[in-house]
Amino acid sequence: MESMFILVPISIILAFIIGWFFWWSGKNGQFDDLEGPAHRILMDDDSTEKLIEKDEDKESKQ
Prior knowledge:
This protein is 81% helix and 0% strand. The protein has 62 residues and is mostly helical.
C-alpha cells in the first residue's frame, strides 16, 4: 500500500508529461504532412525534363 503512494503520483506526472509532449508536437507542426516526404521521392519529374533537353542538345549538335 505504501508503494501506491509513490507510484500513483509518478504515473500521473508521467501521463501529464507525455500529454504535454504530444500537445507540443502537434502545435509545432510535427504531424502536418506525414505522406508528403514519402511520395516526394517517387515524383521525379524534373530529372526527365533535363534528360530530354540533353538529348535534344546532342541531336542538334550532330
